[in-house]
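Incident log, structure service

09:12 report received: a user says their structure output differs between two submissions of the same chain.
09:20 pulled the input from the user's history:
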Amino acid sequence: MSDTGQGATGPVRRRPARERLLSAAAHRFYADGVAATGIDTITTEAGVAKKSLYNNFSSKADLVRAYLEARHEEWRGLYRARLEQAEGPRGGVLAVFDAYADHAAFAYERGFRGCGLLNAAAELPAGDEGRAVVRRSKEEVEALLAGHLADLLPERPEQARVMAEHLAFLLEGAVARAGLEGDDRRLRRARALAADLLEQM
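09:34 re-ran on a clean worker, output below:
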């Protein structure tokens, strides 16, 4: 299959096979689940031969890990965009919540199904490297909250740490409920609760 197509002004370069495979995997893994999505489904949607998948990824497990890392990086981009608009440490904390809501608002094929990382981790066996990727992602989110709270409460580091854990729990609970209900209302409510807590500090 050629990597070029014909556009209105001449040949148009198609995306690299690795990029198309990751895009197809992200689409199908989120919509259908990791276990239910076979390699043939991904290569068909990506428009590449099966050999191309194994030229780019050593196994399906390797593709799953790449998907998880890419999804977290996608969230990081949403967070950075929100952070640019945030004012002070309180705004930084709320930027974390806003980035989750932004992720939930994407036009998913079957609607919002909750955190793609946790959904995938629930299907992976204990000890799988994919679960470690998800754990690192969640630890990073809590660390971001802790950093903003440390700036807000420089004289009370222990309170900042405890509050970061509290808000991380609030966020994860909200995303789980939002996934069950298929929209971002719980995330918006969690953001409002977080804002109220911050105002009390």
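09:41 both user submissions now match this output. Likely a transient worker issue. Closing.
09:42 reviewer note: The longest helix spans residues 60-85. The chain has two domains: 13-57, 66-199.
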